[in-house]
Amino acid sequence: MTDKKKTVVVLTGAGVSAESGIQTFRDSDGLWEGYSVDEVATIEAWQWNKEKMLEFYNQRRAQAASVQPNAAHEALKKLEDHFRVHIVTQNVDSLHERAGSSHVLHLHGKLSEVKSSLDDSLIYEIGDKPVALGDKCEKGSQLRPNVVWFGEQVPEIPNAQLIMAQADICLIIGTSLVVYPAAALVYDVPLQAPIFVVDPHKPAEFRFDRDITYIQKRASEGVPELVTHLINNYG
Ligand code: APR
């Protein structure tokens, strides 16, 4: 017997976690309003102020661990009863996993992990614990958050492209689609796959002419509605 389930590929951004209490980056009350990207999210900043960066990510890690998945994360888990679901997230929180989603690829890394600053293959799970200057990997290099900073490669992009290309249906939830190469993943979605966007604001214009359904609602409302629609019409 073959598995006839359709594949739903979901690209998520900060907006899916907003109602859990994690700030987005570029909304008017977003994280980048209060912090300079250059000081806390670039590889250059890591060279000259490790302590400040470690403290910034310690705060983010503690906060992400203290919040709960919301109705959007939970609806995406429910979708697995009817479809093969692959989530590609730009988020560094683990709310999709904590809601129970089985296949989650983190494009920009995870707050709950640290890695060696000299050997990318040395990755350690630390949960919600802080990292201090002087905490080292087994080879003696300073540990750093396992997140992708501006100016760094995004090593998961090829895997994400393969996932996007499998989509029978694509959902794009809570992302402004202004950060590349993540934003370009939409161009790997097969032409015949319908695309649904859930976001109170329209994200950046797509550079292609195809049918896109915009659901201009918050994720906690729009995603459960969309999941019901998909189950009833495509399941
Ligand atoms: N529900 C759904 N979408 C929402 C909600 C909500 N409750 N609140 C805000 N949004 C939408 C905004 O309208 C916006 O389109 O979420 C999007 C958030 O956009 P950004 O703040 O730019 O976040 P994101 O697209 O995830 O950023 C991409 O940039 O800073 C880097 O590495 C960081 O992964 C991040 C990347």
Automatic annotation (TrEMBL):
Active site per the UniProt annotation: H108
Cite the binding residues for substrate.
Answer: Y57, R60
For molecular function, the Gene Ontology terms on record are:
histone deacetylase activity, NAD-dependent; NAD+ binding; protein-malonyllysine demalonylase activity; protein-succinyllysine desuccinylase activity
Give the UniProt keywords, A-Z: Cytoplasm, NAD, Transferase
Query: Which Pfam families does the entry link to?
Result: SIR2
* Residues that bind NAD(+): 13-32, 90-93, 174-176, 219
Identify the EC number(s): 2.3.1.286
Q: Does the UniProt entry include the keyword Zinc-finger?
A: no
Which InterPro entries does the record associate with it?
A: DHS-like_NAD/FAD-binding_dom (IPR029035), NAD-dep_sirtuin_deacylases (IPR050134), Sirtuin (IPR003000), Sirtuin_cat_small_dom_sf (IPR026591), Sirtuin_class_III (IPR027546), Ssirtuin_cat_dom (IPR026590)
Q: Is Nucleus set as a keyword in this record?
A: no
What is catalysed by this protein? N(6)-acetyl-L-lysyl-[protein] + NAD(+) + H2O = 2''-O-acetyl-ADP-D-ribose + nicotinamide + L-lysyl-[protein]; N(6)-succinyl-L-lysyl-[protein] + NAD(+) + H2O = 2''-O-succinyl-ADP-D-ribose + nicotinamide + L-lysyl-[protein]
An example GO CC term for this entry is: cytoplasm
Where does this polypeptide localize?
Cytoplasm
Residue ranges of domain Deacetylase sirtuin-type in the record: 1-235
* Membership in a protein family: Belongs to the sirtuin family. Class III subfamily.
**Entry's free-text remark on domains:** 2 residues (Tyr-57 and Arg-60) present in a large hydrophobic pocket are probably involved in substrate specificity. They are important for desuccinylation activity, but dispensable for deacetylation activity.
Physiological role: NAD-dependent lysine deacetylase and desuccinylase that specifically removes acetyl and succinyl groups on target proteins. Modulates the activities of several proteins which are inactive in their acylated form.
Q: Know the name of this protein?
A: NAD-dependent protein deacylase
The organism is Cyclonatronum proteinivorum
Gene assigned in the entry: cobB
